[in-house]
Amino acid sequence: MSKLGFFNRSLQVLGRCNLTSTSAKRATAPISYHQNFSGIAEDHNTNKAFDRSLKILQRSNAANFDTYDYIKEEISKRLVDRLDDIIRDDGFPLALDVGSGPDFLHKQISKDDGILADGSVSGGIGGVRKLVMLDSCKEMLHRDDDKIDTLTAEEKERCGTYKMVGDEEGPLPFPDGTFDLVISSTSMHWVNDLPGMLKEIHRVLKPDGCFLFAMIGGATLSELRSSFVLSELERDGGVSPHVGPFVDFADVGALLTNSGFALTTIDIDTITLGFPNAMVCMEHLQRMGENNASLARRKKMNVDTFLAMASIYDHMFQLDDGSSGDEASVEATVQVIYGIGWTPHESQQKPDERGSATKKIGDVVIESTKS
Fold first, then answer.
1. Where is this region: Disordered (predicted)?
2. Which of 83, 216, 332, 349, by CA, is between 20 and 30 Å from 268?
3. What are the beta bridge partners of residue 340?
4. Percent share of the chain, pLDDT over 70
5. 127 in any annotated domain
């Protein structure tokens, strides 16, 4: 039985989620019982930073505003560009998109053919032929289901999809070693238990499977954070979090390694956005579903403090290029952390054992000097 044939059959027994095909004729697969394939208990506890139920509600409300997808579409495009650089014999026929949203990554993957190691083509970019899209927000996941002409017939043929409603930070409802690739874009920064999530992703990947992701980094919205701190210190005599406590770039590599991934690589990208003023910036964040969901957030703020924040922002963080007017006057920084990790396999390069060297570095230097 082929890998894809096995997956089609296994979909009928996956628990805790609704499954929808995005082919021309959509159908929901019946789920008859709950099955937990993970070793993580359902009530797995961790110190929580975010209100997940509030975040799902925020994203549900944001599902009505697809014109604010620009930053997520751009980051998805850059992430798939990295996927296109990976050449494998069979590509990644079966992939999982964790925190998929409507179809940001699927659109990019389907745009072109996947090039395999022998030069042949298969599926979409990266050789992805089927993409399982998992998201905790039903409204966001199914937002574009009724829209027509979002993909051409050729793009639909390259890469099929299944949509599943499920919690990204809980146990993933898949057997061990199911996927060739797990990919995630702009969703991991709202996860409370990142180590648990990474271990689950490692579990559902096959040996020599790839985990490729883009997540929002700790330097994001530093302008907004600073403006709130200054305004609250002046007006209220204290500060409270208004921007999520996102992961620092320096910690991501250790998180991947501790979760069992090998050959890890991390890089960062900084995107500067322009807005007419601070108020418009916050409106865009809300309509993206990216407004504050910290458990330590203030439930209420007085108007004077909020107006002071907006005034400080507009004064301190003007665009360096001198542009002004209705289009862009102030800047907002988005730090994106890109990473890749592989599940261990015997074919992968490994460092030699300590003490196995037959020459000293000093000897090599001396020889090169003599020559």
1. 343-371
2. 349
3. 212, 265
4. 83
5. yes
Distance CA 205, CA 349 (A): 19
Q: Is residue 7 part of a domain?
A: yes
User: What whole-number distance in Å separates Cα of residue 58 and Cα of residue 36?
Assistant: 28
How many C-alpha atoms does 53 have within 13 Å on its Cβ side?
Answer: 0
Distance, CA of 132 to CA of 304 (rounded, Å): 47
pLDDT tens-digit series, residues 175-191: 999 999 999 999 999 99
Top pLDDT among 305 and 296 is at: 305
pLDDT at 243: 82
In Å, the largest CA–CA distance within the chain is 76
CA dist 306 and 308 (Å) reads 5
State the total domains in the chain: 1
Domain hosting 25: range is 3-39+47-349
**Residue 210 within any structural domain of the chain:** yes
| DSSP label at residue 112 | S
| Dist. CA 92–CA 71, nearest whole Å | 26
| pLDDT band, very low/low/confident/very high, at 302 (cuts 50, 70, 90) | confident
Strand 28-29 vs strand 19-21: parallel, antiparallel, or unpaired?
antiparallel
Whether 118 is in a domain gets the answer yes
